[in-house]
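Q: I'm writing up a methods section and want to include an example of the input and output format. Could you take the sequence below and give the corresponding predicted structure tokens, formatted cleanly so I can copy it straight into the document?
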Amino acid sequence: MSYRIHLVESQQSFEVGAGESVLDGALRANVPMAHDCRFGGCATCRVKLVEGTVAYEEYPMGLTPEEEGEGFALACQARPTSDLVISTERPGEPCAEPARHTAVIRNIAPLSADVVHLTLELPQAEALDYRPGQYLKIFTGDGIARSFSMASVPRDRTVDLHVRRIPGGYFTERLLAGLRSDDQLDVELPLGGFYLRKDDYRPLLMVATGTGLAPIKSILESLMDDPDCPPVSLYWGMRTEADLYLHEQIQQWGARLYDFQYVPVLSRAGDAWRGRHGHVQHAVAADLPDLSEHAIYLCGSPDMIRDARGMFLGLGASGAHIYADSFTFQRS
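A: Here is the clean output for your methods example:
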């Protein structure tokens, strides 16, 4: 059995087959629909059900029961159980169309024991045009594209990446170890719906785990020395103090950001650590019991994002002002 899906904004319609998700049906029909992770973690594909019902094989981590009760669904996981009329309207700004480029490696240097700073130059690009927070894909010989958030603002045709080494990973452990300056990589950018909403003047709450710091760094660099910069709180969750690969640099950001607060949180801190312990989302909840006025950016592990979304909505956060980018790591 198939169902008919109708989009309010574009007036486009398409069919979704039995067991197929709304997003899969849209992409098969060449109907554009915003999406990123495709496993229900980031909520980029969130839509509003105007008419009809859906079901899930597994309840997606990027959707709370409260949001579902308000009629929202995640298109990448939602299976129609009737014909649907959906609204895809989302706040945001126009982004540049993604394009393929040949990138040249300009620098490879360790940031920590398992994070590498990779600088790429796109010499043939007329100019870099992306929103701080977006990501690129690197295409390798095994036919699998790897996604990495850009950790810098657009400048001089170069982009910075924070690449976490994954044990057994084809790119991060095997291929990266053999790359040198002037080697070339095939890339595509810009991609993703996780980026700074400049027209949202709410105080910013930035919550990251691991290399989820990378797009947050890009966003905050774009606000440095900006007289319209809103208050910024950055909570960064890591396991140990040695993992805080930009700790000293971040502490200097306050000189160029308005009302900047930086709170590193360690889940496996040593005895010498005098800072916060535990999970980063719990530290936020302890410090900020009312999140009704914040714009919230979440980037990092799917578990953190799932828990933080539910917790922060319970503290009054607006679901329309929570932006998330869920990181998963490929071992192939």
